[in-house]
Protein 1
Amino acid sequence: MRRNATISFGFLCICVWMISLYSVWKKNAKHEFQDKIWEQKLELDERIKQLEKNLNEQNRVELNLIEQLEKLVGNTSVGEDVFSEKGESTLQDVVLPVLLFSCNRPSVQRAIDLLVKYRPDKEKHPIIVSQDCGHAETAEVLQRYKDEIIHIKHPDLSDVQVPMSEKNFKGYYKISRHYKWGLSYIFNKEKYKAVIIVEDDLEVSRDFFSYFSSTYQILAEDPTLWCVSAWNDNGKPGLIDARNPDALYRSDFFPGLGWMMTRTIWNELDSKWPNSFWDDWMRLPNQRQERACIRPEVSRTKTFGKIGVSNGLFFENHLKHIKLNEKTVAFGSLDLSYLLKENYDRDFQDKVDSAPVVAPEHLRANKYSNNKTSIRLLYRSKADFIRIARLFGLMTDFKSGVPRTAYKGIVTFYYNGVRAYLAPSYNWLGYDPSW
């Protein structure tokens, strides 16, 4: 009896142990199954995310291709090649390097800092600093920028031969030699399509790169243009409409001080580049060939170089007062086709012709009808122009007979809320190089 009870109890214990073991196994199996399901779910989620990423990337590539094709179709008739040696596919995508000419100013840092700060794309706008003079302190400043800039050095630091009558202008000879070498590096060696040229004493505005990137398309398309400048020679606060920083003009005067040219123009100038005074040489009729530059209402550069080869010429009385643009303009979103000669000339002449003639003294003293938005001032001689220009604080000098900022002999400025056109008399036959 007792033996049977012991066997029954043992059997019961075995059953309980097996049931418990089964329960533990089942529970672990369930957890393992759930863990496996969870791992599979995570793996599936990761695959879905990767698939979404790939689809988005594919979509971006396709949209980019469509955009490039649209640009290509829209630009196949322009004057410059659509494809370049540097691999650009469209005018908007062209690489526009900045060539900064430097010598012995450690303060070049002031110029480079702004260029680096406002540069939207390092690949599209490489900053190439060409240094002359072999000035060690300036070289040390440039080397601090490492790969933010490309530092090249003018290999010819020898003295220049200067006629005795121009021995005081040796600096201008060295500058012209440096320009020749630097531009040859850009166009002949590196094969860029165009270049933005600045010097080591220029500050730039926030929209400096937007301005040049957008106007490049107009420069490339219109053979009657040969440069784009960031500078307004009459850009002092009392002579500009700072409320309209997006306004651009054509000008027969070569301004310099932050400007862009194409390789086509360089190929034309390379072989005859002058030994000195390169900027005045650019303004000669043989070089200009009745072509114009684009310039802004409000300057996109400002010079801080009081000391230099020009010994501060114009600086105290004029240059230091030029206003640098402070309102960012998205030029890429604007239609700039109005700057093409076929559109600009007709509209410009209509505005000038419709403006009533007012005596300069009346404008100066506000003695004219306040409902006028534009007026015309007439000059009949060089002396007459200089007298009127002085009355308003405009630049009074001429280069090869062209007043600064003039287009078709007309200097446009803004005074007391009125657009003013300082225009030649009705019998004007063109620029007189003797002026």
Protein 2
Amino acid sequence: MADEKPEKNDSLSDLKGNDLPSEVVHDGVPFPWMVSERAVKALKDYDVRDDDIWVTTYPKAGTHWAVEIVNLVLADGHEENIDRTKQAKPMEFDFTQPGAKPPDHLPPDMRIPTYEQVKDWPSPRVFMTHLPEHMMPKQIYQGKGKIVFVLRNPKDLAVSMWHFLLPNKFNPKHEQWNTFFEQYCTDEMVWGNYFTYNLNFWNKHRLDENFLFLKYEDMKRDLRTAVVQVADFLGRPLSDEAIDRVVDKATVDSMKQRFNTAENKSGKIGAPSIIRKGIVGDWKTQFTVAQNEAFDKLYREKMEGSDLLMDFKIKPQL
């Protein structure tokens, strides 16, 4: 069970030049190679518009799901009105940094750093990012822009992240579940430690007016309420009919039909394998008993004193 191989995926490392390491460190945080130093520096001083929407998550916490909900809300539930050419990759991604493959070897949407691509987009711009709290644009903490932050329980996230990372060849420790799990519990994990990442945002910004915190498990339990929360937060209240349209298009089953998955990458939306199972409790198929016990102990230690409660199963609706 623990060493089962994940689904095959295309490798982001295939786009990397031979002179670049697979992992890099910025401000003490490990990142995959396509997060460049120049991108990190540029984003700290990024010019944020008041109506920018930043979907912010630790990787594999439901980023693309939340982005799709935001886009559908802005389009009043009419998917055909979404401009799919304005679908940003994470803002910190820079496939054209020195040492990478020449631009003519890259897909067109990767030939310019993401943070440069979006500068002239019309408002409201919808971005995604996995940057840690201390690397986000400073203007966000001055009240500019709106941040939709999604939290997901760390066990399900670990399984989803392993299935994503292994074929991308960022680190040999990702080749087996057991060695991935050991790294996941430390600060050596790409994008940093799960607990540090999420608690920094939660502790510092959960009361900020330009932040909305959502839980993946709550979204699975009651998607309609989550859609209403997003719409109200964005100042885009929807009619009941529009809410119905958004909910219909924003289910995981609907997105699996329209987005790229590990099984089908032909002519669909988004990067390969951005959607896998989209369920709560999948960790039970991967964690050994010993790993579950060890992680429960780590969870108690890291979350001690915090009022942030994570759900490892879907709570019934009241």
Protein 3
Amino acid sequence: RHEGVQLHRIGVMLASVAGNVTRNLRRNVAASAAADQRRGFKAAVLGAAGGIGQPLSLLMKLNPLVTELSCYDVAPITPGVAVDLSHCSSPAKCTGYSGDDLKKALAGCNIVVIPAGVPRKPGMTRDDLFNTNAGIVKNLVAACAVACPDAALLIISNPVNSTVPIAAEVLKKAGVYNPKKLFGVTTLDVCRARTFVAAAKGLDVNNTNVTVIGGHAGTTIVPLLSQVKPAATFSDEERDALTQRIMFGGDEVVKAKAGGGSATLSMAYAGAEFADAVMRAMKGEKGVTECTFVESTITEAPFFSSPVTLGKDGVETIHGYGTVNDYEKKLIADMMPDLVSQAKKGVEWAGAN
């Protein structure tokens, strides 16, 4: 009987120890999961004092995935922009930098969004911006190559069809090019397409999906209206008008602002949406797919925007654009030489500069 009591006590003690171990494990796992939830990203906005940069910085400051935000611009008001933002009651710590402090602003960044450059004025094409913005993008990306070579780089500065290839060449020269981490932001084309199609067809814009492929300038922007979800039918006149409006939505804003600037608020919104998608995927969320302009082999263009599934390391899968109708086939064929030549122009400029 004595041995039986002893065994019973030992059993109770072991059960108690096992229970404590299990509880501690659960507590540690829960604490680790909570820490992972809190552990966000250090983000930078380069060109943070500009028309796109200020509202973009505000939206990044409000994103719960951002724990630290660096705002950089050549404009001396940039530290003040950051002070202004730091009064918003969101957890992200916000610091402003200007002048020679670019590398300090970039140190330790996981994601860098670049809207820096001059805006379009009436009568200007995105290509007219090339000479000024090419140099700006080159210098900013060269600093990223040194200060945060593993960061995801999101290029907004126009002309995107050329500035993304320039960025790639700069990173190659520095020996840190990772095609999975370089993105041209074409999200605004998708936002416009969703908005215009939903309005034309009486659909809920939040549940309307339109794939937009190609590039990010005029006719290189090709909305695939045949693939709209939920399915919608368009007369030839509707299709032509919507396609034209999506392609030249930027011109609509430039004209409406009558010399006062280009699309800034909508571009900031679209840039923040894409940055959020990249961060969600980098944090481990599955099935995050967005149209974006990346190095691609699905067409003859070296860079092409199509649906891309994002992952922890940036680009995970580049998808083809699926079945298109004859109208869309012609749009793609007609714009392809321009898209190829605009990439080539960027590469050649980077080689000469």
Protein 4
Amino acid sequence: MFTLSVTVLLWYTYVQRKKDMEGFGEMVPDSIKEDVRAFLIYSIIATVFFVVLLLVILVMRKRVAFAVELLNQAGKGLIAMPLLLIQPVWTFIALLLFFAYWCVVMLFLSVTGKPIQYNNTINGEMHVEYQEGELISYFWWYHVIGLIWIAEFILACQQFVIGACVADWYFTRDKKSFSSPILRNIGYLIRYHFGSVAFGSFIITLVKIPRAILMYMQSKMKGSESELVRFMLKCLSCCLWCLEKFLKFLNANAYTVIAIEGKHFCFSAKRAFMILVSNALRVAAINCVGDFVLFLGKLGVAGLTALSGILILECVGDHSSVSYTSLAVPLLVGAVFAYLITCAFISIYEVGSGDITFWIYDV
């Protein structure tokens, strides 16, 4: 119903904006034309999405119902641990602080080396250039690899903490006396499993670096390489991208096994791999449907933001959209920001429901 309401409102707004455009006669500003065209595109996309969504729900209603039940269980876990919703904020702050530190070190590296003084014979000005030594070039590689590794490590720590907290809640029989285990699991991570998480994130780094090199090669060789070379580079990049996604999925489940059984990373990854392979079709089907349901939730928040923006811009001021030159651009920007913020917080639901799915087949 929400998708239908957004679709109807977009078509209604398009009709109203078109009537406003006709009121200008032949002297229609280009911004008004672009606004009307943008609302027409939004309305068509919303209509197509609504039809596809309706067909998917009718065809896969049982699997959708099961995925919704998994998300419902994950939601109950978050109700019991509301502070878990703050985890993306702490992760973002940690990434921001690390990136600031990384930039400061990069500035120091850029001015590290042997200073060489140059004098301008024309105007008498003098400038100094730092010539890098061989050791500094190695530090650049070390610094770049460290950026990727530590960023993946911080994200992996968030996955471990969320998975461990959801596991504690899921396997607790008396949930009425359940207390939030966030701080306990953070201490558990720091004391026992920092190495496992660091090793898992390092594996992801080993895949990201060759992929980044291939992308750099593609950008440098753009327009000069042959069709065969371009095709091979794209195929290699695609294979590495698929491998990276698979390893991230395997690592997430391995962290779940580590949180439950307390084993090292290699044992946990092997156990997670065997469980996933033995239930590959069912896990793939449930994960695809679950990801689709979560995607609908993200679009729902973005659509609600756009809906609220339309109502606010239509009602505030002169109670008419004519006073605004363009509604499409601010609504699109607001919807995109709402979608990105929702992705950060719904990732907790994604980890929680994925862990519950894994435990169902593990048991």
